[in-house]
Amino acid sequence: MNENKLIRSWAETYGSRIENLARRMLMDDSMTQDILQETLTDAWRAWGRFEGRSEVSTWLYRIALNRILREKKNSVGERLSPEISKARP
Question: Is the model's pTM score more than 0.90?
Answer without folding.
Answer: no
